[in-house]
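Lab channel / #folding
Pinned by the channel admin:
"Please post every new chain as: sequence first, then the structure tokens as a reply. Keep commentary short and put observations after the output so the thread stays searchable."

First post following the new format, from NK:
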Amino acid sequence: LGVSKKKANHITRVVKRYGNLIGF
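Reply from TO:
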């Protein structure tokens, strides 16, 4: 579960970054 949480956190950061890129 710890690994999954870490992966999910990474995905969230990536999504936030791309969201800012396209002005989400």
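NK: The chain has a mean pLDDT of 84.
TO: also worth noting, Residues 3 and 9 are 10 Å apart (CA to CA).
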